[in-house]
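2024-03-11 09:14:02 INFO worker-7 job=invfold-0412 stage=load source=structure_tokens
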């Protein structure tokens, strides 16, 4: 085996994490959100939990989505008392349940990498 084959290829940081670190995260945090992941932020208040996330686009590995979600605290528990069907859904690209799941914008990763 050659030395080149034995060298591990460094894992490239996903473009959405690069964007989060390049200033997007700081802008979100300036509006009262706290970072809860490499590319996810949360803000609580008034009985609501807001989330903003940069996530991988489903069918395009070099693209990402900016997602916003909002959950009314306790709403799912209230609905469970009368129905098996929850009003919440998984926020796209995450494991969090939200009552509002909005795609803000979709970006092509290669265009972002060139700009950075």
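2024-03-11 09:14:09 INFO worker-7 stage=emit residues=116
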């Amino acid at each position: 085996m050659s030395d080149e084959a034995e060298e591990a290829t460094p894992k490239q940081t996903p473009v959405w994490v690069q964007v989060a670190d390049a200033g997007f995260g700081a802008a979100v945090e300036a509006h009262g959100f706290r970072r809860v992941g490499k590319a996810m932020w949360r803000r609580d208040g008034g009985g609501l939990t807001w989330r903003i996330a940069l996530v991988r686009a489903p069918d395009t590995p070099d693209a990402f989505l900016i997602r916003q979600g909002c959950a009314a605290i306790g709403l799912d528990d209230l609905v469970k008392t009368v129905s098996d069907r929850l009003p919440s859904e998984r926020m796209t690209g995450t494991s969090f349940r939200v009552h509002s799941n909005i795609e803000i914008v979709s970006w092509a990763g290669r265009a972002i990498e060139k700009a950075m």
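2024-03-11 09:14:09 INFO worker-7 stage=report msg="The longest strand covers residues 63-72."
2024-03-11 09:14:10 INFO worker-7 job finished
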